[in-house]
């Protein structure tokens, strides 16, 4: 198991300019982590609108590669948002493919993309079923484009449409490409009121990489800044291990599935990130060690 961070865990400081991506790499290199995922949205001023230009800046790509090598940080995964169902689907598909080429230039072998906007929520199962063939076709096209580069592509359980354990597994089986898997985010299942203990255990065999994310969970309105799920639950990001998710059982499901790859801390809480991230990393390592010892 290799433990590290998503660059999104440092979004508080990347957004304000307090840290650059190269400085994040330096920080990770000096920590107890071994790898970093690059989430392109962490290079944008707005979470909901990825305006990053990594695919247009080969000089910066080379700087990232050199800095990571100098710091002994493995670049594990490139994470790119994409709406492949809307009116700009062709434009977004081309952008995804350019980022696959960026991943190859960085010697990154894992690539995660979306299929729809985060807030796209099917009004009923019939709408989801109608959209599913288009999602399958898009994922097939991307996986086949990435295959000659030796890259495994994935869709994360993310947002309101392609989320929930069963939906993700259906997509994987229908795409049916050997280099197509899932980025398994243990916390995101909560966004669609899915039981993360159950869905993580069921989806772990299909994971290319794991995101550890924790939430504070409330049943009544606690104040501003909380995410409200379709089922009426309120969520707020927390330090990994400090929230209300049953992280021990979740981690046990990952270990019992035989997963032994990259594990990324994806922190999106309100605590100061340079304080929160080392604590989350230490908690993650301890939780996995406990689960391994209990086998």
Break the fold down into its secondary structure elements and pairings.
Blueprint: E1 2-6, H1 11-16, H2 21-29, E2 35-39, H3 58-71, E3 74-80, H4 89-105, E4 110-113, H5 125-146, E5 152-156, H6 165-175, E6 180-185, H7 196-203, E7 207-212, E8 214-218, E9 227-228, E10 234-238, H8 247-256, E11 262-265, H9 273-293
Parallel strand pairs: 1-2, 1-11, 2-3, 3-4, 4-5, 5-6, 6-7, 7-11
Antiparallel strand pairs: 8-10, 9-10
Helix pairs in contact: 2-3, 4-5, 5-6, 6-7, 7-8, 8-9
Keywords: Isomerase
GO molecular function, one term: isomerase activity
Pfam family, one: AP_endonuc_2
Helix-strand topology string: EHHEHEHEHEHEHEEEEHEH
Which fold name corresponds to the CATH topology? TIM Barrel
Instruction: Report the CATH superfamily.
Output: Divalent-metal-dependent TIM barrel enzymes
Poorly predicted regions are none
Largest sheet: 8 strands, parallel, barrel
Distance N terminus to C terminus? 15 Å
Mean pLDDT, rounded to whole units? Answer: 97
Keywords: Isomerase
Pfam families: AP_endonuc_2
InterPro entries: IolE/XylAMocC-like, Xyl_isomerase-like_sf, Xyl_isomerase-like_TIM-brl
Organism: Micromonospora echinofusca
Defining key terms:
11 strands; Xyl_isomerase-like_sf; isomerase; single chain; TIM Barrel; globular; alpha/beta; 9 helices; IolE/XylAMocC-like; Sugar phosphate isomerase/epimerase; 3-stranded antiparallel sheet; isomerase activity; 8-stranded parallel barrel; 295 residues
């Amino acid at each position: 198991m290799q433990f590290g961070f998503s660059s999104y865990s440092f979004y508080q400081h990347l957004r304000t300019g307090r840290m650059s991506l190269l400085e994040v790499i330096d920080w990770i290199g000096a920590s107890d982590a071994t790898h970093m995922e690059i989430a392109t949205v962490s290079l944008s001023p707005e979470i909901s609108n990825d305006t990053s230009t990594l695919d247009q800046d080969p000089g910066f790509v080379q700087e990232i590669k050199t800095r990571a090598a100098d710091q002994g940080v493995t670049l594990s995964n490139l994470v790119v948002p994409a709406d492949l169902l809307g009116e700009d689907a062709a434009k977004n598909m081309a952008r995804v493919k350019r980022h696959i080429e960026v991943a190859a230039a960085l010697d990154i072998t894992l690539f995660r993309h979306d299929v729809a906007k985060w807030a796209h929520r099917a009004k009923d199962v019939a709408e989801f079923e109608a959209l599913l063939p288009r999602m399958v076709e898009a994922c097939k096209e991307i996986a086949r484009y990435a295959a000659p580069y030796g890259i495994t592509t994935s869709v994360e359980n993310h947002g309101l449409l392609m989320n929930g354990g069963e939906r993700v597994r259906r997509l994987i089986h229908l795409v049916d490409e050997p280099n197509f898997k899932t980025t398994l985010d243990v916390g995101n299942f909560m966004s669609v009121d899915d039981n993360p203990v159950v869905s993580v255990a069921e989806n772990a065999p299909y994971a290319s990489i794991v995101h550890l994310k924790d939430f504070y969970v409330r049943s009544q309105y606690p104040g501003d800044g909380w995410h409200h799920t379709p089922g009426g639950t309120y969520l707020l990001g927390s330090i990994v291990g400090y929230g209300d998710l049953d992280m021990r059982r979740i981690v046990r499901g990952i270990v019992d599935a035989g997963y032994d790859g990259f594990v990324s801390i994806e922190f999106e809480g309100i605590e100061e990130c340079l304080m929160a991230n080392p604590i989350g990393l230490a908690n993650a390592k301890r939780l996995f060690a406990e689960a391994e010892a209990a086998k």
